[in-house]
Amino acid sequence: MFGVLYLQSSYSMLKNAIPLPSLVKEAKRKGYDFIALSDENLHGMLTLFKEAKQEQIKPVLGLKINVSIELEETGFLVYVKTNEGFQNLLKILLLKSETELTIEHLVQHQKGLIFVTSGPDSIIDKSIMNGNEDIAFRYIQDFKQVFNHFYLGMSLDTFDHEMKIAPTLYELSEKTKVKLLPIHQTSYLTKDDREAYEALVKIDDEKNEMPKEANYAFLNKKELIKLYSDYPFIFDTLEKVIQSISYQWEQPKFEMPIYKVDNGTPYEYLKSLATVGLKKRLKKIINANLKEYQERLYYELSIIHKMGFDNYFLIVYDFVKYAKTHDILVGPGRGSSAGSLVAYCLGITDVDPITYDLLFERFLNPERISMPDIDMDFPDNKRDEVLQYVKEKYGDKHIISIVTFGTFALRSSIRDIARVMKIDTSRVTGIIQSVINDKIDTTDEEMTRLLKVAKSIEGLPRHTGTHAAGMIMAEQDLSQYIPLQKGLYDFYQSQLEASDLESLGLLKVDFLGIRNLTIIDDVIKTIHRLGKPFSLVDIPLDDSKTYELLSRAETSGIFQLESNGMRAVLRKLKPNTFEDIIAILALFRPGPMDHIDEYIDRRNGKKFSYIHPKLETILNQTYGIIVYQEQIMRIANEFAGYTLAEADLLRRGISKKDLTILEEERKRFVDKCQSQNYSKEIAEQIYDLIVKFADYGFNRSHSVAYSMIAYQMAYLKANYYPEFMTILLSSITGNEGLTNDYLNEIRKHQIQILPPDINTSTDQYIHTDQSIFLPLLSVKSIGRLTVQKILEERSLGNFKDYQDFKLRMKKDLNEKNVEMLIHSGALDAFKLNHKTMNYHKQIDDAGYEQYITDFKLMTTDEYSFAEKAQFEKEALGFNVLYSPIMAHRDIIKKYKLNTLDDLNHQQQVEVLAYIKKTKAIKTKQGKPMAFIELDDGMTQLEATLFTETFIKYENLLNKDVQIFKIKENQFRNKKTYVVEHIQPIDK
């Protein structure tokens, strides 16, 4: 059994440049009989056993750890010897993430494990290097006494280890009778990869240095024998140790958590819940076909039971019930689960699959054994509450989060390596552009060297993260079967990623935190606080105000409908039914998007025909166009007699576009159609139609569920506009672009936007009557903690005046904070102009007025309008009061003035604006002219004053707000704008 210890893979992030599959293949190629993986984690555990089996090489699972000992650290390589050892390694790994490991921890969990000192970072090697052989001897004796299987790792990777440490280590081995094992830190495959490894460790910490004479390349059998030629016996010891290892990975069989039922079986309880739930649902469904619902329900229950998923449905039902009974909004559904009547009857989803013609087989296919996938949506500020409930009910080692890996992308790799190589950042940008444009200069040595190293680390794991939504649930204590570590929010986290966990048959449940649900929930709560009755489940799906809003494409802030492209489609479509929304969400994707215009034309009366009359009942909702995957399944069922489960397999197979599969399926499909008495010609045409749309087809269940959220938001916006927009604004605080867009829209609805107010505003937008106050949090330099301090102080009583405010907030604000509050308008309640307050912004001076009997604040003239507009924009990121449009609404209304934005569709406008910047120049003939930058509070635009106009209005160019007559002009095939007239507003 030949090989070496201390092999690591790229899972030892930023410390190794070898992908694990390459490591295993290289071990086999270089004559190793085993591969002892010694990463600092067990991320690669499953890959190790899978690759080793494929390469027919013995896998040895190990872990590199550091342990605290006498105020120092020492390293060990720990290898699994038996099944009990694997259990103990998992325990040590978990402890490693929770606390600082000690020798006592290792001793407590040592059964079935082999401990080997790790060379360079072993306290024994360090003691020898420092000339303290007695101390090294004592540690060896101590470790020998407490560990059942303990060995000394001998490294010869550096000159110091070979010449100074190894001879002494050999003597101590002989003296203590503790045997030596060969360890070779393997960090890259060949000497050519050394530079990539050195770059990696410097990305981790630029102070990291690799010893110049060190060789951490993957050594072959011949090289290893030569390296250890002075200690040939070391391989005999190694062979005995490896042969003593009996542990073999066996895939455990996991089960879902058992939902405990007081009486009867989980199936009986599930059936009773679903039956009662159906009765409740049918009360609200007009003219429901009871028999159809009952047959569908019992069919689904039988499949669920047959596939062993009774507990799964009960578990999801239970935490959804918890959410709904604890004031936590639950999404109407997501993905194919909306096609389940059982889920609908249990309240897991709020989409009736029969009303919307959704197929259960698209969700759970009895002919394709796979785990069910019910993804649940919760408000993003309530998701963790649901997770805590589930953890408390089933146990913290029965529900765990999932690790994810951030990897090196080429562009980020280039920047990282360039930083290590000390290449100027401006040059790096150019190199990246060269890569993007595929214009690499092969004669540029610096560039080629950089790209070679960057490409060699591309795709390697860089850091770990947490899966955004997925949680793993199991009846078994997962800490006994898979490697865990401490994760976020007191949850344990698997060190295996999602694909590994699913390959083990573990159940993944997605708990998604959705901002849009938070908005819906907050709007509903606001409506209730206003004393208005409202129930989300009872809103009508034919509300005219909602469809009018959608037809106008006033969909800012509405889930799935906010993009410019979608708005353009809505204007053309002018949806007037819920089916329109479902279809357009399914069509608005690359590929099917090409059929949108045809869909709209047919909807508006364009004639079309069906290949066969029986297609009409399947495709009439979408005017003869296949939009949904379920339609493909229906067609296969109708024409070829496939069961819906078989039809789902057909759809999946065709969508892979594998020519062999396509031809095999064609023959089978045509034969089955002919057996159903359809002609071969019709069968071929129908099959070609399916193939054409198999890629385009969208999951109708998913589209219906998403359309429900989109419609709910549109309904709230159409019927409760101020409440909706106030909550929407609070949800995007800090996003200046979106905030400005939403504020401009609100103004068009004749709702006044007010700046933050120090005695009224909070950390949220506030709606009062026909006004909306900005939050204090919208002021630059004022963070959440500062706002909290202001609110705490204000709870003791409003701020009386400017001096009172500064005095009371003296400890929590600085001059920059005060200045930004002034310019934002937050301190206008103190009835002082901005320039006066800014002159007295020194907060340290606050309080001296208490000692002066005749104290009076010195006042100054105010800033100009343009200055206040500029300062306000600096403080908020946009203008509220000092926008020409807001400050002079009466003039704009009286004279029906335009905006600068109107120049996008008008050739001439009259607009109220102020000049932000003026650039006067001389023409070639020496005549004066100017370029001015205009701002109307929403749009900025550059316009030209030609000589005659410039001379006429030169004396007005330093004025504040004026009326400008502007005309579109063409100059060198480019659109420009010319000022024709300027009118002071006081005239």
TrEMBL record:
GO terms for biological process: DNA replication. This is DNA-directed DNA polymerase. Pfam families: DNA_pol3_alpha, DNA_pol3_finger, HHH_6, PHP. Residues 3-69 form the Polymerase/histidinol phosphatase N-terminal domain. It catalyses: DNA(n) + a 2'-deoxyribonucleoside 5'-triphosphate = DNA(n+1) + diphosphate. It comes from Peloplasma aerotolerans. It is an enzyme of class 2 (transferase). Keywords: DNA replication, DNA-directed DNA polymerase, Nucleotidyltransferase, Transferase. Its EC number is 2.7.7.7. GO terms for molecular function: 3'-5' exonuclease activity; DNA-directed DNA polymerase activity.
